[in-house]
Design a protein that fits this description.
The chain has 11 helices and 16 strands. With about 375 residues, the protein is α/β, with parallel strands linked by helices. It is elongated, with a radius of gyration of 23 Å. It has an 8-stranded mixed sheet, with helices on both faces. Helix 2 runs parallel beside helix 3 and helix 9 crosses helix 11.
Length: about 375
């Protein structure tokens, strides 16, 4: 990639960082993407599955009718940025790109720029700019809106930046890349009353407190130790007055797993524990367990193709284990073969970690990310 394009991409990325679009509110980002694609001469379709944008590059010759998809996600998070010294810090209160989707979007635009300048391919390339990855169901919405019927592609490839991995290094996983994820809520309902007269109440806080501890036994005692699993209680809500026993206490959190039977065991364990605690303390319990993403698992042929493409651009590692983070690219991989890789964002010190208010995408890896996407598309079209 020449220096001029690298500088252009850095400018685009910082513009997106300063003007983030929250999940399901990516209209400004989508418009920016569509404008850049049109400047490159791509066919552009907007409003796919919400604010999704698909750019199509076509080139005939050589008898090729192959097609491939490349995906970048666009949405930001409901986090107040703490990078006060950055000249391009978020201008939207309470919203920031704390996961690097500004970089993912920009890298895909960079791949489009490289491909339009490269005469060495024929076929069709679908550039999929996805909204609502952060729990908003964006992948499923695009699929439901006919993504793979309206924009046929034989394979699809994507990536995520990875803090802590050496900048520009591509990690290709042999098995799962990321975990399945679910959000859960457990509500205990009792009987409210004066805190000085607890014998006249049925205290849901007692149930919630026991549940926080008991839920940890699911992973410790109900899951095969060889199967990774996470149960994290992250929110507790109850009461308004210090001298009142509330009538309701709600716990919220997330669960993660890599194999389906583990997810089923986690849900069953939660329901069993909630029911047991409710019976013990004369409460009522309600459990909501909503699966958001499936495990992200690469297809073998596409995994190896991605590793070969990455090796032509940068250093490759194939020894990293899966992360328990979730990624709705998994739904695309259920529809067509493909692969998802990590690209190192560099050190994570100083809070430069995913979903941290001090995170910032490393612009120095844009040439690698764009180069990888362009290379893997060319190899896929060539029948690799």
């Amino acid at each position: 990639m020449d220096q001029a394009l690298a500088e252009t991409l850095t400018g685009w990325r910082r513009h997106l960082h300063a003007h983030p679009g929250l999940t399901l509110h990516e209209a400004e980002t989508a418009a920016f993407v569509a404008a850049r694609l049109r400047e490159m001469g791509a066919e552009v379709t907007e409003g796919v599955g919400g604010h999704g944008v698909v750019g199509t590059l076509r080139r005939g010759g050589g008898g090729s009718n192959r097609s491939v998809g490349l995906r970048g996600d666009m949405d930001a998070l409901p986090i107040q940025e703490q990078n006060d010294s950055l000249p391009y810090r978020s201008t939207v209160p309470g919203v920031m790109h704390a996961c690097g989707h500004d970089g993912h979007t920009t890298a895909l635009l960079g791949a489009a720029a490289l491909l339009t300048q490269d005469p060495g391919w024929t076929g069709t390339i679908q550039l999929v700019f996805q909204p609502a990855e952060e729990g908003g169901g964006g992948a499923r919405a695009m699929i439901a809106d006919g993504l793979f019927q309206r924009f046929p592609m034989e394979r699809i490839f994507g990536w995520h930046n990875w803090p802590g991995l050496e900048a520009g290094t591509v990690a290709v996983h042999e098995g799962p890349v990321m975990a399945a994820g679910a959000r859960f809520e457990i509500a205990f309902t009792g009987h409210a009353g004066h805190a000085a007269l607890p014998h006249l109440t049925r205290d849901p806080m007692i149930g919630a407190g026991h549940a926080i501890i008991a839920l940890q036994s699911i992973v410790a005692r109900n899951i095969d130790p060889m199967h990774a699993a996470v149960v994290s209680v992250t929110v507790a809500e109850a009461g308004e007055a210090q001298n009142q026993v509330a009538d309701r206490a709600v716990l919220k959190g997330t669960a993660r797993w890599l194999v389906p039977e583990t997810g089923a065991a986690i849900e069953a364990g939660m329901r069993r524990i909630a029911a047991g605690i409710a019976a013990t303390f004369d409460l009522e319990a309600e459990v909501l367990f909503k699966v958001g993403v499936e495990p992200t698992v690469n297809h073998p042929a596409e995994r190896d193709l991605a590793a070969g493409a990455a090796g032509a651009v940068t250093t490759v590692r194939r020894d990293l284990q899966a992360a328990m983070t979730g990624e709705d690219f998994s739904f695309f991989l259920k529809e067509v073969p493909g692969a998802f890789v990590w690209i190192g964002n560099g050190p994570g010190e100083g809070g430069c970690e995913l979903h941290n208010p001090r995170y910032d995408f490393n612009d120095a890896i844009l040439p690698v990310a764009s180069g990888f996407l362009a290379e893997v598309a060319k190899r896929a079209l060539a029948g690799g």
